[in-house]
Design a protein that fits this description.
Length: 250
């Protein structure tokens, strides 16, 4: 991996797997090939076996939502680090990116066609356009169709992970004091350039719990805007940021 990308994997990214750079070849699979119906269904069976999801049974919406969360984690860690710390736009179009999968079928790391290009804009509503337009929009449309879940569920998964990595990157040793401000600006905007709705608007909220007696105030509670549906899988329950009361989710 080129040295300037390698330098990112320290501090809050230490222990994560950086992307590989070069033509997609085994063991990676190109994203376009991975999304072909037969290949994706086979990978979904392999992935679902670890979550009590027998073939043809269980909640397909929840399983594909969970798969997307693994994928978005592998995608957003390097993309946001390169964007916010190096002011570099990584190639993430379907025909430019591959995915390395674990033996259990989890998306683990990316394979990138090249090391990206300097950003053409540093504005928070523009600098993530490659991510939103070339990768997220077509992928989420595809996953929503395959799963039957609303596209809003997948955008919520993206936003939750995006906001998490903004917090992590703020502590990165390479981060300038204002490094993540434009990322937060994107999440605070109701619309994108041209007036279209921003699907990443306010993906999480923070609530201050009511104090209990004389105990010290609790830290704010982080809550997703939308549930990721993972509680619908036999082996899993609610995530720690779920907005859905258990009595309403049963």
């Amino acid at each position: 991996m080129p040295p300037f990308l390698d330098t990112l994997y320290t501090g809050p990214l230490d222990g994560l797997l950086p992307p590989r750079v070069g033509p997609v070849k085994a063991p990676a699979v190109s994203l376009c090939d991975l999304l072909r119906p037969a290949r994706f269904e086979a990978e979904l069976v392999r992935f679902g076996a670890g979550y009590g999801y027998p073939q043809g049974q269980g909640d397909r919406r929840a399983l594909i939502s969970l798969w997307s969360k693994w994928h978005f984690g592998a995608l957003l860690a390097p993309y946001l680090a390169a964007n916010l710390l190096l002011e570099r736009d990584l190639p993430v179009g379907c025909d430019e990116v591959g995915v390395h999968l674990t033996p259990a079928g989890h998306p683990e790391r990316l394979q990138l066609a090249h090391t990206g290009r300097p950003l053409t804009s540093l504005d928070g509503l523009m600098r993530f356009s490659t991510l939103i337009d070339d990768h997220l929009t077509p992928l989420i449309s595809d996953l929503a169709t395959r799963s039957g879940a609303s596209a809003k569920v997948f955008w919520s998964n993206v936003g939750n992970t995006f906001e998490h990595f903004l917090g992590a990157l703020a502590t990165h040793p390479m981060a300038q004091p204002s490094a993540v401000e434009e990322g937060h600006r994107l999440l605070a905007a109701r619309t994108l350039p041209g007036g279209r709705r921003n699907p990443l608007y306010q993906p999480v909220r923070y609530f201050q719990p009511e104090p209990q007696g004389e105990t010290a105030a609790s830290p704010p509670r982080r809550v997703r805007r939308l549930c990721c549906l993972r509680y619908r899988l036999p082996e899993l329950g609610y995530c720690g940021n779920c907005p859905l009361p258990e009595k309403a989710a049963g």
